[in-house]
Amino acid sequence: MARTSPATKLPLEVVEKIIANLHYDIYSLLACTLTCYPWYIAAVPHLHHNLFIGDSWGPKCRWPNRLRPIHRLGLLPLVKTLWVRGTHGHAFSQTWFNSHILHQFSALSNVQRLMIDHLDIPSFMPRIQQYFGHFLPTVQELCLTNPNGSHRQIIYFIGLFQHLEDLNLIYIESGELTNDLALFPFFTPPLRGWLKLTCVRRVELLKDMIDLFGGLRFRWMDLFDVDGRPLLLGACANTLEILRLYPADPRCE
Questions:
Q1: 172-198 b/e (C-beta count within 10 Å ≥ 16 → b)
Q2: How many independent structural domains does the chain possess?
Q3: Is the pLDDT of residue 248 over 80?
Q4: pLDDT tens-place string over residues 16-67
Q5: Higher confidence at residue 27 or residue 176?
Q6: Are both 17 and 128 inside the same structural domain?
Q7: Is 22 part of a structural domain of the chain?
Q8: What is the pLDDT of residue 135?
Q9: Residue 129 in 3-state DSSP?
Q10: Domain limits at 15?
Q11: Interaxial angle between packed helices 151-158 and 203-212, expressed in degrees from 0 to 180 and rounded to the nearest 10
Q12: Do the domain assignments include residue 252?
């Protein structure tokens, strides 16, 4: 016997076909989510989108024009994956923001996967929660590529996300260490999903992360050119299920 929706008595296969035809009709999809639970399950994945903000968004640039109408329609909270891409000479820093941009950036309240290239953590301190606090209840995966900051500042940023499961750190090389040993993470995130490390050469970062988070509980690891691998393996010895090691490559290709 075919399964049916309790509210409309339609077979679920028919419901899915109806939803598929409404893929770009946001208001109809929102109405479908209010019909009943099966309609909600069928419609809500189409309401989540990926948003990429490139390196052209900088200190002298306004919030991208293509996002303005989306914000007016109230659709920014439906962004599931956010990728903000700075560059070596144009890091993602506090200087990118004014009150107008911060207001719209804060509307991204349903992001589950946050990716940031060249994040300048020191520029946001000590009011970093004012800029990233709205991500805390929802972000489950964090990817940082070439972040700028001491190891304590990087750990503090990771510790902002109280429900963080997966962590991806790329190109974390030696840098200047500041006297911030009194800086402790705000939360102890679960960190029990997937750990991906590429060209991470700060053993003190990994050691401090283990100490300050009371251990790590990752189930899967991808490690590529990482110093301190025995330290990580020992920390996750009781939970690790899958481990993939890649040979060191100075080009990180």
A1: beeeeeeeeeebebbeebbbbebbbbb
A2: 2
A3: no
A4: 788 877 766 777 877 887 777 777 777 777 776 778 887 554 444 445 555 5
A5: 27
A6: no
A7: yes
A8: 92
A9: helix
A10: 8-47
A11: 40
A12: no
